[in-house]
Target: Glycosyltransferase 2-like domain-containing protein
Amino acid sequence: MGARPQGGSAIQVTSIGGHPPLHTVKPLARTLFNRVFATIYALSILALLFYHAKTLFYPTTLVSFSVTLALLISDLVLTFFWVSTQTFRMFPVCRKQFPENLTKIMERSDFPALDVFICTADPYKEPPIGVVNTALSVMAYNYPTEKISVYVSDDGGSALTLFAFMEAAKFATHWLPFCKKNNVLERNPEAYFELNHTCTSEAVNIKKIYESMKVKVEQVLERGEVDDEYISSDQEREAFNKWTRNFTRQDHPAVIQVLLDASKDKDIAGYLMPNLIYVSREKSKASPHHFKAGALNALLRVSGSMTNAPIILTLDCDSLSNDPETPLRAMCYLCDPATRPQLAYVQFPQIFRGINKSDIYNAEFKRLYQINVMGFDGLSGPNYLGTGCFFQRRAFYGSPSSLASPEIPELAPDYIVDKPVQSQSVLALAHQVASCNYESRSSNWGSKIGFRYGSLSEDYHTGFRMQCEGWKSIFCDPDRPAFLGDVPITLSDALNQQKRWSIGLLEVGFSKYSPATFGVKALGLSMGLAYAQSAFWAMWSIPITAYAFLPQLALLNKVYIFPKVSEPWFFLYAFLFLGAYGQDFLDFILAGGSVQRWWSDQRFWIIRGLSSYVFGSVEFFLKFLGISAFGFNVTSKVVESEQSRRYEQGIFEFGADTPMFVTLTVAAIINLSSLALGLAEVFRGNSLEGLFAQMFISGFAVVNSWPIYEAIALRNDKGKMPLKTSIIATLLAGTLYAASCFIFR
Model:
């Protein structure tokens, strides 16, 4: 587990007792190239810093000193990100699993039990039918059904979500045996029926049952309440009466509803069903609820009191299973004695469905979800990505060598639950541990036990802290994606999601557990830097903003701040730019990306740097100084038809009124004006030598800003740039130019 593959082609094979191997690992072929290129590029960076220092110490004017200092700071930030990126390029590995060999070393009846956590918070932003599909897709895993328990956390406390899962429980009795009998690959019904798998009378009948359920759920959502006409049994009526009694109170107690009981409920073929349990934890204005991390810890305790499976799978509400063999692939590591003792989790990549051809909002995020994690995997293992992750329950309770005991023995990771999930004592304990004041009994929850508090990015924080405690992790990236998620289809949703992540990461970066200090000490320089790159993501805004405005404003004032084309220093700048972009392009293409999507990836990096990262940084530091606070905003999963059509056509959505569009538009106006002035100077006969670098940067920004110009002047649909945004941005751009005239004169 701890050994790192060495050499360019060595393959490590893990087998048990002479049986066929469960998995292999080998380094990527491009590792040697990465190391050689890093050496050359590092020397070039040192040369650039020398050039800045020389100019800084011998300035000709105060303006020259100020510009050089700004560029030096920007380039130092870029240097930090380049150095931290190299940690992912030094030891990248790829793995292969052999789930077919599992049954050769153990019986299926000996497979460990699996608890699945699915979190949802708002039925109007996260439609219940989508959450239902996620649950059904994992309930139908090719895994001993009676060993699966699915826990759905409804942090919105909505009767609509509860109703949806009551209907899902009934549909599951038909869906699960159908999947097993026909060896269905797509085990979320929505995807299955979208592929028109209805060539048999049995499939047609299943589709009718599913469509009936879907219509009922969507009608209830549209009405906003569950009428008596939708309740089909006294048991359901009692459940809703109980829900109503609880949720009409301001400080409602926890609601836990067992919808399917694996000890007695059977499908239409007579086989036992998995457990399906609805959980709405107690929430009170008088107690902190810690957002998603709090919901996950409530599930950790509730599941511990009811089933206490040794393996836990965490899923976002839209992370649909795409391969019924996925848990078997995870078990290739979790059931291997060679890897298990220090293995905290097995992370699968986040891969998304419904992305348009060019991926205009960089939803694929290939560097975060695939490229970087392969580099992490060659060190101590990948970071936790928040979904598609199989944990050992033990990893939530202290380090591999030191157990952090919970307050009561029933929550210990090795406790054996020997009573049915619906027994009175089990349900009583489950309600107790889901109460909002339960964690006040111990200071360990969220710090030493469970998912970690203190950050909106609870996934990053939790994985990082686990690895600091001595746990390892593994990245599992099979050919067929294990999970498929949904993506934001509007620019405002995509940017707000990135802003929330930036704030959460900065919360860790500037805490006592900062990867730059605590992480380097606990994990070593490479892993510390790897985690630090993500923690300080928002700092990308410094060089991106500097290079989006400073050269352009200087050019507008006919001040030239870069070397002439004929000077040797110009070729250093050219090499650094082309080298960074070229290697990023190579990484992207070798990871299976396309040229078109790579262009969108680098463009959206610039967009984030001028919007999400800027506003995320401002919000974080305002909170840090105690001036304001922020909350957790759920990313909408609702798809509107017009927005969906524009997204499929690759058209940016600017219809929302958000200040983040103002900064983007200001940058677009400044860069277009700068390029126009530069071209005018060339046409007047001025030499291009001194202008070229600044004109190139302006031109590069203008090409990337085309969707903004189009939204301002060439579109009439609802996704065009709001007139208010255009006017404010124009005024700000004019003000910025006027200020620069004063500075550069």
Notes: The CA atoms of residues 107 and 580 lie 51 Å apart. The domain at 116-487 is CATH 3.90.550.10 (Spore Coat Polysaccharide Biosynthesis Protein SpsA; Chain A).
